[in-house]
Amino acid sequence: MATTPQWSSRFAFLMAAIGSAVGLGNLWRFPFQTGENGGSAFVFVYLLCVVFVAFPILMGELAVGRHKGLSAVGSTAQLAKDAGKSSVWGITGWVGVIGSFLILTTYSVIAGQVLAYSVMSFLGEFAGRAGGDAAAVAPLYGGPVHALGWHTLFMAITVMVVSRGLNDGIERVVTILMPMFFVMLAGMSVYAMMNGGAEETLAYLFSPRFEDVTPSVVLAALGQAFFSIGIGAALMLTYGSFLGPKENIANSSVIIAGSDTLVAIVAGLMIFPIVFTHGLDPAAGSGLIFGALPAVFAGMPYGSIIGGVFFFLAFIAALTSSISMLLVGAAVAQEQFGVKRGMAAIIIGAICWSVGAATVVVSGLGGWLDFVSGSIALPLGGLLVALLAGWVAPRTVMRGELPNAGEGMFRFWRVMIRYVSPIAVILILLLGLDAKFDFGLNDFIAG
User: Fold this and answer.
1) Cα 17 from Cα 171, distance rounded (Å)
2) CA-to-CA distance for 420 and 47, rounded, in angstroms?
3) CA pair distance 256, 263, nearest whole angstrom
4) pLDDT tens digits, residue range 160-208?
5) What one-character DSSP code corresponds to residue 284?
6) What is the Cα–Cα distance from 382 to 72, expressed in whole angstroms?
7) Please, what are the domains in the chain?
């Protein structure tokens, strides 16, 4: 194993990994996906997809990353080479690096808006706008100049954290922000359930409605489970490279996947009571977060504080994810090109900022970047990881990286990573392409 920094504690690793997985998708994508796909039917299938598809690939990424202790590119290439296979398998890492880079370019723009909305709410900018669209008239965020300014601030924060390194930068941030995030999320959820449509929310999310489980619901849940945990983007390959040999990867994977799933469900308990009480559309997506909810907060008692806390929650989720995405590229630049980690973070951050800035002023560019990253790079990266861990890496190597997993669990993992997960990811990849180019697969499955 190459000499690399290591996590100073298991707590620091878990906070970083959970923070990487927990992102804006948990706070707004999961609720609106649930709203579009039958409520509890979607939640039920989503939980199954986490266990049988996302969890095995998560374990595989951490195991492959730790085995060589290199960057995402170095670990995948060297593992294949040691197994007597071509080092071209390093493309697995490169696909993840590209995916993370592309996601970060647009993610930073959205995260900047989230940060702006938190500040706006705390300052009372939404006050008196109940029933209106706060996003359209709030003076701190309107037009490309403000968007670029908040995008710049968010990216600067991300670069600053990553440039300080693993222990002095990332660990210090996540070990403070993630516990704060959990406390604030729990408090907001309790408040929403006590003051909103709790009964309707519980019935919507958890009452069995198996008759609503359709092929389209299954595929939507599959995609949400895959993307929510962040597999395929080389995030866990990179974080795994900093793990010590005694870390229980199987147990940690359960905690990471379970925490990410719990956050998504608790986010539903936070958002849906407000949605149902105020007659909002649960399937409104970003329009719900940046349009309807600010207007609702404006009309609530203590709405400025509640709205500020809500958007600050989203900011924490965005930041802990963004630092992992930037770290992926910085680690590769350091290893493959000899660039110092701090300078690598600055250079890659500057390029990400430039592309993100272009999406603000060039119509349609952000949509194409989202398509390439979400519908091509991430599924392809996940598929390659599954093939690498399940078929290329010798069984003895993977068993050596998962010594704490019981034989039954290891056999379950091997079956999932070799057969079930690849098939599921191929479906995600094909359906993502079909959604863009419409060759009829989605219509065929929908019946």
Assistant:
1) 10
2) 15
3) 11
4) 999 999 999 999 999 999 999 999 999 999 999 998 889 999 988 888 7
5) -
6) 13
7) 10-446 (1.20.1740)
